[in-house]
Amino acid sequence: MRNFIENMPKAELHVHLEGTLEPELSFSLAEKNGISLPFETPEALIAAYDFHDLPSFLKIYYAGMSVLQEESDFFDLTWAYLEKAASQNIVYAELFFDPQGHTTRGVAFETVITGIHNAQVAAQEKLGIKSKLILCFLRDMSADSAMEHLLMAKPYIDWLVGVGLDSDEYNNPPVKFKEVFALARKWGLKLTMHCDVNQKNTLEHIGQVLDDIQVDRIDHGVNALESDALCNKIKARQLGLTVCPVSNRFVVQSLTSQEIRTMLSKGMLATINSDDPAYFRAYLNENFIALQEEGNFTKDEILTLAANAFSVSWLTEPEKTDYLHKLSVFSDTRAE
């Protein structure tokens, strides 16, 4: 199964570029940019990854961004992830980035998005991995700030496929950003929002995501299983759910393997993703492998999860068909 997972062509739909910042690159950029880190070695930095819930993770996560200063830093960050992804037979990725986490530090929006975009272009040419970019708003900042950053993005609209919403969900319901997401949709962008696991008012928030925002996809969304009405709505609209098993284990002490199997049994389009792999020490293959080992998932179930990711991606229909065909060929070859 491990070999099967590692060689299977895959798509990843829920990965935060800032969450792919490996300690070694962090130290390298810190030295280049003259930034002092409160750790002597990359190993010491990893040892500090002591988080047990969303707020404790975010505290470390945002502190790590300080080393990202120049366009080349964002290029290096993005290239490193895409190189790692290609080595894991990820053929397509949709990448989140958090511009507010950088502009609030004095880094220009143009610097951030240009570095990322140039790495995407280079990776497709040199590594053969295709990717698209999703601008995420920080929900614990104001809706005005989100709107300001959406307007900043307008000159680069062709570099984006969608917008998302992440960060601390506490007292930051989806409807807070209704106008921002409505404008993004008007501009032709796809919509997704985080509904993190076991958050306060989570069912109400999932309802808002479905009814008030009318998203095209939901990030995490595991708690939807607590409501038949929400599950039926998600299934009827064929909305993808981007579940992150290893991330869940850090935040809620569970890989949510039982919940993922329940989603499959209900015909819901669950997908597997790595979220913030540098911090959770697990990229996409490691997430699939951990999930399979804990839940004893079959090859057919693993293939369904992989196929779901291509199906609910924001690729064109011909692109989806092509990738799904390649996955089918891989499956048939391994069955012989």
CATH architectural category: Alpha-Beta Barrel
The side-by-side strand order for the widest beta sheet comes to 1-2-3-4-5-6-7-8
| Morphology | globular
Task: Give the helix proportion (percent range).
Answer: 40-55%
Give the distance, in angstroms, between the N- and C-terminal Cα atoms: 15 Å
At the fourth level of CATH, the homologous superfamily is Metal-dependent hydrolases
SSE order, as H and E?
HEHHHHEHHEHEHEHEHEHHEHHHH
CATH class: Alpha Beta
Low-confidence stretches: none
What would you report as the Rg, rounded to the nearest angstrom?
A: 19 Å
The number of domains: 1
Estimate what percentage of residues fall within beta strands.
Answer: 5-15%
| CATH topology grouping | TIM Barrel
Query: Structural class, from helix and strand content?
Result: alpha/beta
The beta-strand count equals 8
| Number of helices, where a helix is a run of at least 4 consecutive DSSP H or I residues | 17
Most strands sheet: 8 strands, parallel
Whole-number average pLDDT?
95
Structure description:
The protein has 336 residues and is an alpha/beta fold. Helix content is 54%, strand content 15%. The chain has 17 helices and eight strands. The chain has helices spanning 2-7, 23-33, 42-47, 54-64, 71-87, 100-103, 109-126, 143-153, 178-186, 202-213, 228-236, 245-252, 257-265, 277-280, 284-295, 299-312, 317-335; strands at residues 10-16, 90-97, 130-138, 160-166, 190-195, 217-220, 240-243, 269-272. An eight-stranded parallel β-sheet has the order 1-2-3-4-5-6-7-8. α5 (71-87) runs parallel beside α7 (109-126) and α16 (299-312) runs antiparallel to α17 (317-335). It is globular and about 50 Å long. The model has no long low-confidence stretch (mean pLDDT 95).
